[in-house]
Amino acid sequence: MADPISSPSRRSIARRAATVLAGALACAGAPAEEGAPHDGLHDFDFLVGRWHVHLRKLLHPLTGSTEWADYEGSSVTSKLWDGRANTEEFEVASRNGKQRIDAQTLRLYDPGTRRWSLWLADAAHGKLSGPPTVGAFEDGRGEFLDAEDHGGRTILVRYVWTRPTPTTARMAQSFSADWGRTWEVNWICELTPP
Questions:
Q1: Residue among 183, 189, 146 nearest 164 (CA)
Q2: Which partner from 37, 70, 86, 176 sits 20 to 30 angstroms from 3, CA to CA?
């Protein structure tokens, strides 16, 4: 029996995902040509501290479902290594109290590429996710991409940070099953002061 990881179809999917991601990341993280290039080291500084979280989560992504659940909770982000990394503790519960999401995010800054790698840890399953979601901020908007397995198929995952200020921030996660032609938002996280 052939190894499913090295089968031609899995290899072609992996090559296609790598090509799409490389092109998207090159565009997302390309420094401006005029003036000094944006270094990105302080792009997540707005997130440091304690936040109130309102989360809307699509319950069944990429199925045509429109059923959402609302969660409330907190997020605490701390700097590490003089700002070259940060860690976020994320704890929310559904409004009916029956569901919880406890997670940890580790963000690592690469000064060579001026990009951040976002690693997620799932407390419920005791696992570190992979691959990291990688990207950068440009003009106040952060875009981060990766390819993941979802329901037995490879999809693109995108995080978009918008409106980061000292008093508000918003992150939306989207999935694409068609290599970025269309995106379905499935996670909307609104942050405000506690």
A1: 189
A2: 176
Rounded CA separation 5/14 (Å): 10
Q: What are phi and psi of 156, to 5 degrees?
A: -95, 145
Beta-strand pair 115-122/133-138: antiparallel
Q: Which domains does the chain have, with CATH numbers?
A: 8-192 (2.40.128.20)
Q: What's this model's pTM, rounded to 2 decimal places?
A: 0.81
pLDDT tens series, the chain, 194 aa: 333 333 344 434 444 444 444 444 444 444 444 566 778 999 999 999 999 999 999 999 999 999 999 999 999 999 999 999 999 999 999 999 999 999 999 999 999 999 999 999 988 888 888 789 999 999 889 999 999 999 999 999 999 999 788 899 999 999 999 999 999 999 999 999 99
> Is the bond preceding residue 131 a cis peptide, omega within 30 degrees?
yes
Residue where the block lists tokens 């995080």: 159
Contact partners, residue 119, CB within 8 Å, separation at least 6: 105, 106, 107, 108, 128, 129, 130, 132
